Amino acid sequence: MKQNQIKKINSKQIVISNDYEGQRIDNFLMRYFGKMPKSRVYQMLRKGEVRANKGRIKQTYKLKTGDVIRIPPVYLDEEESRKPPRFLQQKMLESIIFEDEGILIINKPAGIVVHSGSGQDYGVIEAFREINEAYKKLELVHRLDKDTSGCLILAKNIKILRELHNIINKNEIKKSYTALLAGRLEKKKIIVNSSLSKNPENEKIITVKEGGKAAETIIYCENPSDKASLVNIELITGRTHQIRVHSASIGHPVLGDSKYGDRKVNREFKKQGLKRMFLHARKLSFISPVTQEKLTIKASLEPNLLNFLEKMNIKTI
After folding, report:
1. Helices H, strands E: what count in the chain?
2. Which of 42, 91, 273, 298 is exposed most, by the fewest CB atoms within 10 A?
């Protein structure tokens, strides 16, 4: 049996260039080490093995030009199977719906995580970085859940990443989603502004909780039927699992959602042919930091969702 190759990275000091100004140290380290588990990166930071300007730092520390970062000696498993396979790299290339010198936008397929971690060896970002040198410096601008498809923005350098994060923080980006919700929505427009918070017993679960982070979702019901309603959703805020939790909170969860949905209803629709969560990031609109012009990008629904809607006699939006 072939043994995994072990690669040693010696201790060194790195002087931060302006290309990495503003990037969080945890993200910098995960990019630097590549295949290292996220848990090991955070362990190094907690123990003070990684230092900035000879001082201990937290995972939230943002790099400054001229910082001297001390990298400890580490051993990395060079197992080939952990590399993103060729078919995934090709799938990522085929998913590109917009590209210029600073921004890449893809129609992310459902079933693929955006980055490694939590038992996943690779995701969208690792697959792109493996393709060629032009994509080595790609960074995720935001995230989509594994089972959500649609518009996902990647930045080609740290400068563009910072500018896009600034746009997001100022709420100057419009995000629209298409979803199929359980049951019939009687109102044409529903505004949900319940605050959200992590479940103290399980931080991977988000709950509606007074005093949590403010969150607002606007649901436009386009094509309701007796058992399901096809809707357009506009996100005013961008909290984790916001659409899924808000939809469930009003009694109309996203169909196919295994975490916040109705198991019995999901089973019924799975028998009808819905094999995934019906949530799709349909459109993005923002002022491009590259051209300073308004950029509007739309991502089409996957064929399996279109076929399901046709089978259910639900008109697409």
Report:
1. 8, 18
2. 273
3-class secondary-structure state, position 242: helix
Catalytic residue among 67, 77, 100, 145: 145
Query: Sign (positive/negative) of CA torsion 302, 121, 137, 70?
Result: positive
Fold entry, domain 83-167: Pseudouridine synthase (3.30.2350)
Specify whether the CB–CB gap between 298 and 281 falls below 8 A. Answer: no
In which band, very low, low, confident or very high, does the pLDDT at 284 lie, cut at 50, 70 and 90? very high
Helices (H), 48-199: 86-94, 124-131, 158-169
**What architecture is domain 172-311?**
2-Layer Sandwich (3.30)
Residue 135: CB atoms within 10 A of its CB come to 18
* Angstrom distance (rounded) from CA 13 to CA 67: 10
Say whether 67 is catalytic.
Answer: no
Q: What is the pLDDT of residue 6?
A: 66
pTM as predicted: 0.81
List pLDDT tens digits, range 104-141. Answer: 999 999 999 998 766 677 899 999 999 998 898 899 99
Instruction: Give the Cα separation of 102 and 107 in Å (integer).
Output: 17
Q: For residue 170, give the 3-state DSSP assignment.
A: coil
- Domain ranges in the chain with CATH number 3.30.2350.10: 83-167, 172-311
Give the angle 186-188-193 at the CA atoms, nearest 5°.
95
Does 75 score more than 80 pLDDT? no
The domain 6-80 belongs to what CATH superfamily? RNA-binding S4 domain (3.10.290.10)
